[in-house]
Amino acid sequence: MESILRAHAEQQFAAELYELEQADRRPRPTNWRLSPWAVATYILGGTLDNGFEIAPKYIGNGRLIEIAIATLTTDRALLLMGIPGTGKTWVSEHLAAAISGDSTLLVQGTAGTSEEAIRYGWNYASLIAKGPTAEALVPSPVMVAMRKGQITRVEELTRIPADVQDALITILSEKLLPIPELNQEVQAIKGFNVIATANDRDRGVNDLSSALKRRFNTVVLPLPATADEEVTIVQQRVHSLGQALELPAEPPALAEIRRVVTIFRELRQGMTENGKAKLKSPSSTLSTAEAISVINSGLALAGHFGDGTLRAGDLAASLTGAIVKDPIHDTVIWREYLETIVRERDGWGDLYQACRALI
């Protein structure tokens, strides 16, 4: 059997979901695999009565996750907002896996997403041969979720054209999907709901109509509050991704992760960690997801073209690439940061030299 590059959440964490299901004695909403308490435990981590450890999938404000789960028990849909890299997709996938046992009912939003992706389409060969019939209808992930009483996910909702977004209004308000060609409708089964994600940095691409906004409860996922929290997230994700990608390098030293996280946080906030120097911020997002990518790229270099140990030279290329998106504006900011901050820090000389050689 071929190795899967990225297993779905319900496959990757099947053991945890099984243990939670066996230990869960709390009331479960109709068609939910787990109770809201067990879903929160799966996302936030914890220890079951039998000693089984549930690894945290989200490190941050647990109350936000509880609000998100509580929303899904009501007739309101859930909208996860935040800048790129704050874990919106990660959280939505794990919520769907824990609630429905299936995270694959997904509509990926793009500028080219059509109304058929949200409502339904047709098998045109059958449509031409027999006309509109139930057999010719091709259900969307949303329609499948309505019929099964499951969670469906809509990624990057604000990238979908406004007229296509509005196809969700009837579904979310009336809990039905009309099929006028067949003079039929699909009524949602209990357990059905929608989790949408949206990047608030790109909010102006296709902003949601007031009618659609009213049908969502919005939860904003922030960047990690502290450096320690962000380091822990990066360390966890790098470890799991490194195993999945089979990178031939040893796990990165905590010091290297902390250096990348410190650089990202300082440039994001426009101020050094100790608050003594103000900095200019580049145009790049510099999210936690970007930090994970920088470390993984460095591990790949270290494993395939180095001695297997992550060093400053392995980090420099991907670090510079993550920060410098605008070759003129960002290069000036990055060079200034290297000269005034990185160069003066004790023990950072190797990183300064490696990064300086690339700009």
Describe what this molecule looks like in 3D.
- The structure is a single chain.
- The protein is of the alpha/beta class.
- The protein folds into two domains: about 10-220, P-loop containing nucleotide triphosphate hydrolases (Rossmann fold); about 225-355.
- The protein has 16 helices and eleven strands.
- It has helices spanning about 10, 15-25, 35-45, 60-70, 90-100, 125-130, 140-150, 160-165, 165-175, 210-215, 225-245, 255-270, 290-305, 310-325, 330-340, 350-355; strands at about 45, 55, 75-80, 105-110, 120, 135-140, 150-155, 175-180, 185, 195-200, 215-220.
- The strands form four sheets. Strands 4-7-10-3-11 form a five-stranded parallel β-sheet. Strands 1-2 form a two-stranded antiparallel ribbon. Strands 5-6 form a two-stranded antiparallel sheet.
- Helix 11 packs across helix 13, helix 12 packs antiparallel against helix 13 and helix 14 packs across helix 16.
In short:
This protein is α/β, with parallel strands linked by helices and 359 residues long. The protein is 46% helix and 12% strand.
Overall mean pLDDT score? 92
- Which bin fits the share of residues in helices? 40-55%
Largest sheet: 5 strands, parallel
- Order of strands in the sheet with the most strands? 4-7-10-3-11
Secondary-structure element sequence?
A: HHHEEHEHEEHEHEHHEEEHEHHHHHH
Tell me the structural class. Answer: alpha/beta
With helices defined by DSSP (H or I, 4 residues minimum), what is the helix count? 16
Going by CATH, the architecture of the largest domain would be 3-Layer(aba) Sandwich
Give the low-pLDDT segments: none
